[in-house]
Each structure stands twice: as C-alpha cells, then as structure tokens.
Amino acid sequence: MTKAIRWRIIVLQVVAILVLAFGAGAALYAHSFITDQIHQQLAPQQIAFPKDAASGLPADLSQYASQQVLTGDQAHAYAEKFIALHLQEIGKGHPYSYWSGLALQTADPTVKAQDQAIADTLFKGETLRSMLNQAWTFSVVAQIAFVAGIAMIVATLIVLGALAFEVYEMATGKESAQILGAAPPMTRGEPAVSR
Question: Distance between CA atoms of 153 and 27, rounded to whole angstroms?
C-alpha cells in the first residue's frame, strides 16, 4: 500500500471516529434527557398503583403494587391494564363517542345528565390513558437511543482499532509500492511475452 493511500485511509478513519463518537454521545444524551423528562412529568402527578387486590389492583399488575408511576413501562401498564379496565366497566363496553351521542339525543334531563357524566368520565380517562401511553412511547424511543449509542461506541472502538493498526503499519514502514497487472521482471535471454 502506498503512503498516500494509507494517509487517505487514516483520515477517513479519524472522520469516522469523530462522527461515530458524536452520534454515540448524542444518542446517550437523548436517552438520559428523555428518561429524565418522563420522570419529571410523571412525578408531580402522584399516580400510584393500588397496594393489593383488595384495593383494586388487577392480578397482572401485582409487580407494581403500591409503586408510584415514574417510568414509561409503569405508565403503559397503568394505562392499558388499570385505566382501560375501569373505562371498559364505566362505559359498559362503549367508548366516549357512544355516551356523548346518547347525551346529545336524550330529551330527559336526568338521563341526559347521567349519559353526559359517563361521557365526561370516559373522556378524562382516555385523555389520561393517552398521556401515559405517550410517556411509554417516548421511553421506548429512549431505549432505542441507548442501544444505538452503545452500538456506536462499539463501532467507534472498532474503527479506532483499525486506525491504530494503520498508524502502526505506517510507523514501522511496511508500505510497499505494488503495480498491479505489471509483467514480472525479465532476465537476460528470455523472450519478451506479449499480452
């Protein structure tokens, strides 16, 4: 390999290391920032799982008993297995739009108030459920950013190893000039071979 080609390879490796290191840092920062924001947004809400089944905790949520909702996974579990269960019961299997429509069509003020109360409860519950699921979605993005950051660190180390090899090879003077496709040197007395 010629010295000029080796220098080009070294420069490309240095650029790759800088780009990968920057990407790794950005990905790990994104993970940390998102995780922190989720915690900061959920903590003041003081949403907590019930302490046991007698307090209303579904059996499939026993691992979260008495815990405050502070992470994306907790938010998703609370939204999909706790709030959704209660909304299904309150709405008797029907969504907000069904109860809101009934409230608009009903002339009896008592029935109208009951239907609107169910619709309002479902609307508020679905809104909270949606917000908690957004926290979970962002936590998944944070996890992907973390994995990407680690992968970029590994890639950076691999390129750094290749760079160290190239620098070592250059320092020990093992460059050699080879002309590809050239005929082997002739000795006296051999006839010239045409190609």
Answer: 10
